[in-house]
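[Discussion] Sanity-checking designs against the backbone

I'm trying to build intuition for which residues belong where. Below is a structure token string of 249 positions. I'd appreciate it if someone posts a full sequence so I can compare it with mine line by line.
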């Protein structure tokens, strides 16, 4: 009788079976989302599997039916495209974070104002400017737009080393393979081997917003819980410590 009572008590108090959620996230979220995923796992007992790449690559994978549950993009256009295709649940979408765009250099650098008088070619001194793909990856698109707005793109276009994602561009500068690069402010903050030369004026490129949403084809019951966790106090602390700005509800 006692053994039966104890068994019933265990069954009543045992946690539900752990689940798993697959998150596709922009490469620039690499460090913070690893930490937030670990916090979610500790808090809920569920497993978080994260795949990082350029937003354009991930969006195309979702288009082709990749088994993602939640998508975090570094660009609203890619999210909008997926919504229009019916690949994203529009009711789940939330504009989560903001970022800024910076010019970085290897090691210590002399700060400068990034404006129409900035001599980018002199700073490059024959080297290459590392950027994410300028016609596909958000950081590259923002960077090309900013340089064009300042009248600097035409001169530097042939000196651009394009990479699959912004973190690879960051690595080229960190290792000295490229003397300069254009990345997000949060990327620069995460890499001690680079220094920020200057921040591109906000009016030279579209607002850098990171939307998050559930994939329409996913029936994962954890989607709403994870999206809510991303907006909660624990995740907010991780995001802000990394230099992201939270967008108010």
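Best answer:
Here's mine. Compare freely.
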């Amino acid at each position: 009788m006692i053994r039966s009572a104890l068994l019933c008590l265990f069954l009543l108090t045992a946690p539900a079976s752990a689940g798993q959620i697959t998150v596709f996230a922009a490469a620039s979220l690499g460090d913070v989302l690893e930490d937030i995923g670990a916090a979610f796992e500790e808090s809920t007992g569920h497993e978080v599997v994260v795949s990082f790449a350029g937003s354009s690559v991930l969006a195309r994978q979702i288009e082709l039916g990749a088994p993602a549950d939640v998508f975090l993009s570094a660009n609203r256009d890619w999210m909008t495209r997926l919504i229009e295709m019916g690949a994203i649940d529009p009711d789940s979408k939330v504009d989560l974070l903001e970022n800024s765009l910076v010019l970085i250099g290897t090691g210590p650098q002399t700060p400068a104002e990034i404006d129409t008088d900035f001599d980018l070619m002199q700073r490059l001194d024959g080297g290459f400017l590392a950027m994410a793909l300028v016609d596909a990856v958000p950081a590259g698109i923002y960077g090309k737009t900013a340089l064009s707005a300042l009248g600097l793109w035409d001169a530097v276009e042939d000196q651009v080393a394009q990479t699959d994602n912004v973190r690879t561009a960051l690595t080229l500068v960190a290792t000295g393979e490229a003397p300069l690069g254009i990345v997000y402010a949060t990327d620069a903050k995460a890499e001690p081997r680079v220094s920020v030369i200057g921040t591109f004026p906000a009016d030279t490129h579209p607002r850098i917003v990171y939307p998050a949403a559930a994939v329409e084809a996913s029936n994962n019951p954890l989607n709403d819980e994870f999206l809510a966790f991303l907006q909660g106090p624990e995740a907010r602390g991780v995001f802000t410590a990394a230099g992201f700005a939270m967008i108010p509800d």
